[in-house]
Design a protein that fits this description.
The protein has 31 helices and 35 strands. The protein is an alpha+beta fold and about 1050 residues long. The strands form eight sheets. A seven-stranded antiparallel beta sheet has the order 2-12-4-3-7-6-5. Strand 20 and strand 21 form a beta hairpin.
Length: about 1050
């Protein structure tokens, strides 16, 4: 992009250039999208990206394709299938749109939940309260009353029909409330509140690492954040993707699992991430795609509705088909992307003067944290929320790095500006800053420079020839006659006719006009020379498929786009060039120009400026530079008198620039800071520059009544050509707001203590408790009310009972203090006796387990002896059955070490060994045969031979324990003479060439009225104090199934009941080994 420079500021020029780039890219995005949709297999990405360089900007307007493209991106009616979606009318709370999978996910009847006689139906007009239990439905309804409903996410709801929990993630769209529902899966991390808490702990650890980093290295910051996200999420690849000023992207930091091709250092064209997608990232800062190969789900809308529902804020929004193809080509099946949003840090030149300075800063998308996975992957919402918070903290530190980098660069430019100005005024000719050292190439980063002065040309380093420079000057006088300068990253794009003849080495140019005929030039080479391939290998002979959107092809396309572009010129560089232009204009005139070289040397010797004029000129230039800064900057001369006071300091203190100039700095600081500033000034004038010194400035004028301005300052000594210190520049950071916040906290804390401990009779009774219920506060009014002194109740347990009305609304509390009363002493004695009784029982259990092992050892000996007596095949099979039952008993005895085997968090372990399903089924059935014989019940196993002979990996003994428990309960509650049937179904899912996941389903069907409802409910209740033996065994078995990524359902039909057990196992060919 290019921009000529009239009287506008650098920030204004930057905004105009950015808007033009965004408009141009959005148009190209739309063209690419239309071409992709229409061309299918003939889509040529490289050819279309080339259009970005060849299409004139004036032709890149808002066409019909652009409008249609933006509407399609924002109004697409598809979601990903890992959840479902409802759109609710804000007034009636009824459904106005739903995803096709919502009825199945939210209203399917589960026989594990009893008493669901008339299940609700989901459709247009359904009241959402009928789908969920009261707490979740009420929470959803309350969300309508919040302006920012995202603060409530996620809302935990539970379906009435299935009892399944869901995360409800709510956002407000035009005219409705859109709710994404994601299943809460106990087998996935984090599923419970404890899991979510663990996610935040991990995020806190990552944030702590980021905050402990020393400033000054963006690379170290990015490497740290990708490492922490990699550890936190478990994806195969995590990248920090940075957007450059011309909107193209670069993989700035990366970490991958072994064996994955790295993308570190690769650059991609701006079209790889469309502007519409960037807009959506600003709105919805975390984006997850679970499986790019999964079929999207349609949204069904109310045809009578007048609104067009937008899914911009939905976590389930389906990705565009073009992006899915891109992911497929990268072998990235799943992804997680977090937006890194930073402040623009620009002064709004168009703002009104009376506009408040505390207005919200404009934001921009610095880049993305991108996670890729080579297989489907789902990350629950609590962990995604923790990642979003981590990205926000990262963005804050990116802002700090920007500020630090800007201060360092401005300081460097300020030094160089001072030295060049000193050289210029001593010699009174621009030749001194061309032929001397340093020269104008040291002012800003460039590859070459030139001066057209007095109809002569001087060239430095990589610069066009003399005739080419004259041609450029002629073009400037014709096309940019009214501008004082020009900056462009592409002379080709700026419209210079001779750009092609300059080649790749001269692409970017910055110009400062001294007069209409005298010009300073700075030149830059093409960007492609600075882009390095960071992958595993990149042989130029390798050919990419130009019709597929592969990352390596995108890199190739980028080289084609940028070979005629340079790095863009930054605002502070253009400010430095503009300042040099003003100095040259102020000190030189047409009369000083030589007509021949000997006369020039004579005039250089005659035009000597005295020291005072020189110092004033340098000071004037420093003031101009300081005024462009967004941080407080002030400067003093060798006597401590203010000679620099930028607009930021004037804004903070209320003291205008003309009022500050000439005053001594010590008269402007608070009395408490006089010695600090005096010492800092003394050391700086000696050449010792102190860093991060804190002092306070007085406030004046309209801000006279405000608190002092608190600054943290770095001192920078200003030197003349002879390296003598002639003044000090203070570059500061405003800490006033931070101090106000800390003071407010201190005042609140002090007010709190003053109120609590005030003996005034008007102060009401006040007491407090910590998170464990122990009394932590007790004021004088409480002592008067209760008769208990503070020392008597502090650190005693405080019992609080809620008082509720008939609607369940809390209307008050009853509070009790635990004191060592007789009743409490008696209760403690009872508790101690109970603990001693429990200890005796525990010792008895320990003895019994030890004693049981002895006869079990004898049984093992007998089995081994029988094996050597020439048993036939059937007899040997019975021995194996006994051996399996023995292993099961050992496993159950080992469980006695658990503190509470009914606790879901207990460490019931699972092994991963190979076993035959036949062995498990036979051993489990054998444990119920005696009970079956007593009731005349027949057990039939309708299991195919393929099932029985299937070798799988998993915990066969635990599976045997589960099956025997459910068989025993089924037999117990079957009528005399009944039957029990066992059937199965196996489904294989390939996850590699040599490994399959098996979804196993076992059905245990028995006649009669079935298992009583109270025992079935005990299978789902953890804290049932009246849990029966059967209920306890079913509860433990269900927990074991959950560890196997399975569950149990109970189906009750007329005269028949069925347990449906599901579990996940693994299988592999016999040749693959264990």
């Amino acid at each position: 992009m290019s921009s000529s420079r009239p009287a506008s500021s650098s920030s204004s020029r930057t905004r105009q250039s950015s808007r033009a780039r965004i408009l141009a890219q959005t148009t190209l995005d739309a063209e690419l999208n239309a071409e992709y949709e229409e061309s299918a297999d003939s889509f040529d990405y490289s050819k279309l990206v080339e259009a970005q360089r060849t299409t004139p900007l004036e032709q890149q307007g808002r066409s019909e394709k652009v409008i249609a493209y933006l509407q399609h991106i924002q109004r697409a009616k598809l979601i990903q299938p890992f959840g479902c979606l409802l759109a609710l009318d804000e007034k009636s709370f009824r459904v106005i749109a739903f995803s096709e999978n919502a009825p199945e996910m939210l209203t399917t009847v589960s026989h594990a939940v009893p008493n669901v006689d008339d299940p609700p139906k989901l459709g247009i007009g359904t009241n959402v309260r009928s789908l969920f239990t009261d707490p979740g439905a009420t929470a959803l309804q309350k969300a309508l009353g919040f302006a920012d409903v995202s603060l409530l996410n996620p809302i935990l709801v539970q379906c009435k029909t299935s009892g399944k929990p869901f995360y409800a993630i709510v956002h407000r769209a035009t005219g409705c409330l859109v709710v994404d529902f994601e299943p809460v899966k106990p087998t996935e991390f984090p599923a419970t509140a404890a899991g979510a808490l663990q996610s935040y702990k991990l995020a806190a650890k990552a944030i702590s690492k980021i905050q402990s980093l020393p400033g000054g290295s963006m690379e170290a910051l990015c490497n740290t954040v990708v490492k922490e996200v990699f550890d936190l999420t478990g994806y195969d690849r995590v990248m920090a993707y940075k957007f450059h000023e011309d909107e193209h992207g670069e993989v700035f930091a990366e970490i991958t699992k072994p064996g994955i091709e790295p993308y570190l250092g690769l650059h991609y064209p701006a079209t790889d991430i469309p502007q519409a997608a960037r807009f959506l990232f600003m709105k919805n800062k975390v984006r997850m795609i679970c499986d790019c190969r999964a079929r999207s789900v349609k949204i069904i809308e109310d045809e009578a509705a007048s609104i067009d529902i937008s899914l911009c804020g939905s976590t389930l929004r389906a990705p565009h088909s073009c992006h899915l193809q891109y992911m497929e080509n990268m072998n990235s099946i799943a992804s997680l992307v977090m937006a890194v949003v930073v402040n623009e840090n620009e002064e709004d030149d168009e703002a009104e003067p009376e506009q408040p300075s505390q207005q919200q800063k404009k934001k921009k998308l610095w880049g993305l944290i991108v996670c890729h996975h080579e297989s489907p992957r789902y990350v629950p919402f609590p962990l995604r929320y923790a990642c979003e918070f981590l990205a926000q903290v990262f963005a804050v530190h990116v802002n700090k790095e920007f500020e630090l980098e800007k201060q360092i660069q401005e300081k460097s430019i300020l030094r160089m500006q001072t030295m060049l100005s000193d050289m210029l005024f001593k010699e009174a000719s621009p030749l001194s800053i061309i032929s001397g050292s340093p020269n104008i190439m040291d002012l800003v980063r460039c590859d070459g420079a030139a001066l057209l002065y007095g109809d002569k040309v001087w060239r430095l380093s990589t610069a066009p020839t003399e005739s080419q420079i004259r041609d450029i000057a002629s073009w400037l006088s014709e096309v940019h006659r009214d501008s004082t300068g020009l900056s462009t990253d592409s002379l080709h794009d700026a419209g210079y006719p001779g750009a092609a003849s300059l080649g790749d080495m001269i692409c970017g140019m910055a110009v400062a006009k001294i007069t209409s005929k005298d010009i300073l030039f700075w030149f830059r080479s093409h960007t492609a020379a600075e882009v390095k391939w960071g992958g595993a290998k990149h042989d130029p002979s390798e050919k990419d498929d130009s019709r597929r959107m592969h990352p390596r092809l995108s890199f190739k396309a980028f080289l084609e786009v940028v070979k005629m572009k340079s790095l863009p010129w930054s605002d502070y560089e253009m400010d430095a060039i503009h300042s040099m232009q003003l100095i040259l204009r102020g000190t030189l005139s047409d009369a000083n120009k030589p007509t021949k070289e000997p006369g020039l040397d004579n005039q250089i010797g005659d035009l000597k400026i005295d020291g005072l004029a020189e110092l004033q000129a340098v000071t004037s230039e420093m003031v101009r530079l300081m005024e462009t800064a967004t941080v407080p900057i002030l400067a003093v001369d060798g006597n401590g008198l203010i000679n620099g006071w930028n607009q930021k300091v004037a804004e903070l203190t209320g003291l205008r620039v003309d009022e500050a100039i000439g005053r001594h700095i010590l008269t402007l600081v608070e009395d408490s800071s006089v010695q600090i500033v005096q010492r800092m000034l003394y050391l700086a004038l000696q050449g010792k520059e102190e860093k991060e010194v804190r002092f306070e400035l007085k406030t004046h004028g309209s801000k006279r009544d405000d608190d002092p301005v608190i600054l943290v300052v770095n001192a920078c000594a200003s030197r003349d050509l002879h390296d003598h210190v002639v003044g000090v520049c203070f570059v500061a950071q405003d800490m006033t707001v931070h101090k106000l916040v800390m003071d407010k906290f201190t005042r609140v804390e002090g007010d709190y203590k003053a109120i609590v401990h005030n003996p005034n009779p008007l102060i009401p009774p006040i007491f407090g408790a910590d998170q464990f219920g122990w009394c932590s506060e007790w004021n004088a009014a409480m002592t008067k009310l209760t008769g208990w002194h503070r020392d008597e109740v502090i650190d005693k347990m405080l019992l609080v009972n809620r008082k509720e009305n008939e609607d369940g609304v809390i209307t008050g509390v009853f509070c009790f203090i635990h004191v060592p009363s007789d009743e409490l002493q008696h209760a403690l004695h009872v508790q101690q006796a109970s603990e001693q009784t429990a200890l005796r029982k525990l010792k008895a259990f320990s003895y019994m387990r030890h004693a049981i092992n002895k006869p079990l050892s004898g049984m093992v000996y007998c089995r081994e002896a029988l094996k050597s007596t020439g048993l036939n095949e059937e007899q040997m099979r019975q021995v194996h059955v006994a051996e399996g039952c023995h292993h099961q008993l050992n496993k159950i005895l080992a469980d006695l070490d658990q503190d509470n085997i009914t606790d879901k968090t207990s460490c019931l372990d699972l092994e991963m060994v190979e076993f035959l399903l036949q062995d498990v089924v036979v051993a489990a059935v054998s444990q119920s045969l005696i009970a079956c014989q007593g009731k005349g019940i027949r057990v039939s196993c309708n299991l195919p031979e393929k099932f029985m002979k299937q070798k799988v990996y998993g915990d066969g003994i635990r599976l045997q324990q589960i099956l025997s428990d459910f068989l025993f309960v089924s037999v117990k509650f079957s009528p005399v003479g009944g039957s029990v049937e066992i059937s199965s179904k196996l489904t294989k899912n390939s996850i590699g060439e040599k490994l399959h996941l098996i979804d196993m389903e076992l059905r245990i069907k028995h006649h009669g009225s079935g298992v009583p409802a109270d025992i079935l409910s005990q299978m789902y209740e953890e804290d049932n104090k009246e849990q029966s033996e059967e209920g306890l065994s079913l509860f433990v078995s269900r927990n074991l199934l959950k560890l196997m990524n399975g569950d149990v359902l109970h189906l009750r039909e007329a005269g028949m009941s069925t347990f449906i057990l599901t579990a996940e196992l693994a299988s592999a060919p016999a040749s693959s080994g264990h």
